[in-house]
């Protein structure tokens, strides 16, 4: 499916407010509710819209410590390590990066005691991990909540 300007504008509306109704999107773009609904459903069907979700302010929800880890793994253990990490409720995201079997992991926890437990009990004890670098977030300037098209 090739996106046109109207599709991009619909995606912009949904990125700003995922609960925006088809009627309200249609008013912004000069479309009917039915035309808007059909376009959104087509983008869902084609995988352009993967899912609708809520963006939670982690700090206000009690997860006040945000840390990023660069986790180097033995090449044969990368998928196993990634599966274990993504199963952990403290892991917000996990990506395979370029470099020597590298994972980039974002962790959200309530306090530094939980961060220490995650680091020592989860990461350092996991088989297949060869090196861990950590970075604690001080301030967030921008967070991805939608792709600007």
From TrEMBL:
<dbReference type="InterPro" id="IPR019885">
    <property type="entry name" value="Tscrpt_reg_HTH_AsnC-type_CS"/>
</dbReference>
<dbReference type="InterPro" id="IPR011991">
    <property type="entry name" value="ArsR-like_HTH"/>
</dbReference>
<dbReference type="InterPro" id="IPR011008">
    <property type="entry name" value="Dimeric_a/b-barrel"/>
</dbReference>
<dbReference type="InterPro" id="IPR019888">
    <property type="entry name" value="Tscrpt_reg_AsnC-like"/>
</dbReference>
<protein>
    <submittedName>
        <fullName>Lrp/AsnC family transcriptional regulator</fullName>
    </submittedName>
</protein>
<keyword id="KW-0805">Transcription regulation</keyword>
<keyword id="KW-0804">Transcription</keyword>
<dbReference type="InterPro" id="IPR000485">
    <property type="entry name" value="AsnC-type_HTH_dom"/>
</dbReference>
<keyword id="KW-0238">DNA-binding</keyword>
<dbReference type="InterPro" id="IPR036388">
    <property type="entry name" value="WH-like_DNA-bd_sf"/>
</dbReference>
<feature type="domain" description="HTH asnC-type">
    <location>
        <begin position="3"/>
        <end position="64"/>
    </location>
</feature>
<dbReference type="Pfam" id="PF01037">
    <property type="entry name" value="AsnC_trans_reg"/>
</dbReference>
<dbReference type="Pfam" id="PF13404">
    <property type="entry name" value="HTH_AsnC-type"/>
</dbReference>
<dbReference type="InterPro" id="IPR019887">
    <property type="entry name" value="Tscrpt_reg_AsnC/Lrp_C"/>
</dbReference>
<dbReference type="InterPro" id="IPR036390">
    <property type="entry name" value="WH_DNA-bd_sf"/>
</dbReference>
């Amino acid at each position: 499916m090739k996106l046109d300007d109207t599709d991009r504008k619909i995606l912009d509306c949904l990125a700003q407010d995922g609960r925006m109704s088809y009627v309200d999107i249609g008013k912004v773009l000069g479309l009917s509710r039915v035309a808007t609904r059909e376009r959104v459903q087509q983008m869902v069907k084609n995988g352009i819209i993967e899912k609708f979700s809520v963006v939670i302010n982690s700090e206000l929800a009690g997860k006040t410590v945000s840390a990023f880890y660069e986790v180097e793994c033995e090449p044969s253990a990368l998928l196993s390590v990634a599966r274990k990490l993504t199963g952990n409720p403290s892991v917000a995201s996990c990506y395979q990066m370029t470099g020597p079997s590298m994972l980039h992991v974002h962790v959200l926890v309530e306090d530094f005691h939980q961060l220490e437990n995650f680091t020592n009990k989860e990461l350092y004890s996991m088989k297949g991990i060869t090196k861990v670098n950590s970075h604690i977030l001080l301030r967030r300037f921008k967070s991805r909540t939608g792709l600007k098209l």
